[in-house]
Design a protein that fits this description.
The structure is a single chain. The protein has three helices and four strands; from the N terminus they run βααββαβ.
Length: about 100
């Protein structure tokens, strides 16, 4: 896996969400918490990732992306790009994040 950073606009975040494979429903309470933390400079940056598969397609982190869309402003997030496409890995990368829904 490769770690990095990416500044994502609201438009690009929406595009990732529109193109994602089937995922569980978004919990609005988690999105609201992330939006508030982004606005108050309290985002859990150290433990929260947006994950992409080896082809660069969005894999995990839909609540963060939805928060970016709702804010309507770009935001820089930590990213992980997987070397193998492993769907069983969902939830592993953000397990210490306070936004973890698993």
């Amino acid at each position: 896996m490769v770690q990095g950073e990416l500044t994502i606009s609201a438009e690009v975040a929406q595009q990732y969400l529109d193109e994602q494979e089937k995922n569980r429903p978004i919990k609005q309470s988690i999105v609201n918490m992330i939006v508030a933390d982004m606005e108050n400079d309290n985002f859990d940056y150290d433990h929260t990732f947006v994950v992409f598969n080896k082809e660069g397609k969005f894999h995990y982190g839909q609540h963060v992306l939805k928060a970016i869309v709702e804010r309507g402003q770009e935001f820089t997030v930590r990213t992980i790009t997987l070397e193998e496409n492993d769907k069983s890995s969902r939830g592993v990368y953000n397990k210490h994040s306070r936004y973890n829904v698993y």
